[in-house]
Amino acid sequence: MPTRRIFFNQLSLDARIGILEHELRATQPLHIDAEFDVDISQEVHDQNIQSVLDYRQLRHAIVDECTRAHVNLLETLSERVVTRILNEFSDVQSVRIRISKPLAFSDCAAVGIELYRNR
User: Fold this and answer.
1) SS3 at position 4
2) If DSSP codes are grouped into helix, strand and coil, which group holds residue 15?
3) The Dihydroneopterin aldolase/epimerase domain covers which part of the protein (predicted)?
4) Which of 21, 41, 48, 102 has the fewest Cβ atoms surrounding its Cβ within 10 A?
């Protein structure tokens, strides 16, 4: 089955995540890279957004899931995001998400978790 890939590079947001004392008191920045392989189930009609998966909806789901409540671990957050995407978007056949903390360590650009799942 043919697919189309939708991707986000370095979606930036502030989230309540972590187990350390300072992480429990304040938000911190996250960077999110995501790829979604989507079934091409119909022809694209340039004047009709309904003929494609609207990536604004994917972005909203990611942002909402990452900012709705405090989460202790990046592993938990990445699982929640992937599960939500697969539950809400039936056209998505596979998801790869990378969530990173750019301020976690001073000696590297970021540390994070990458998760891949398909149907």
Assistant:
1) strand
2) strand
3) 6-117
4) 21
Residues 6+ apart with CB under 8 A from 76: none
> CB–CB of 34/95 below 8 Å?
yes
For residue range 68-83, list pLDDT tens digits in order: 999 999 999 999 999 9
Question: pTM for the whole thing?
Answer: 0.92
Distance CA 95, CA 82 (A): 7
CATH number at residue 10: 3.30.1130.10
CA distance 82 to 88: 10
The Cα–Cα gap between 91 and 86 comes to: 9
For range 13-38, the mean pLDDT: 96
| pLDDT tens, position by position, 45-61 | 777 777 788 999 999 99
Q: What are the backbone dihedrals phi and psi of residue 20, each rounded to the nearest 5 degrees, phi first?
A: -75, 155
- Do 33 and 13 form a contact (C-beta atoms < 8 A)? no
Domain extent at residue 110: 3-118
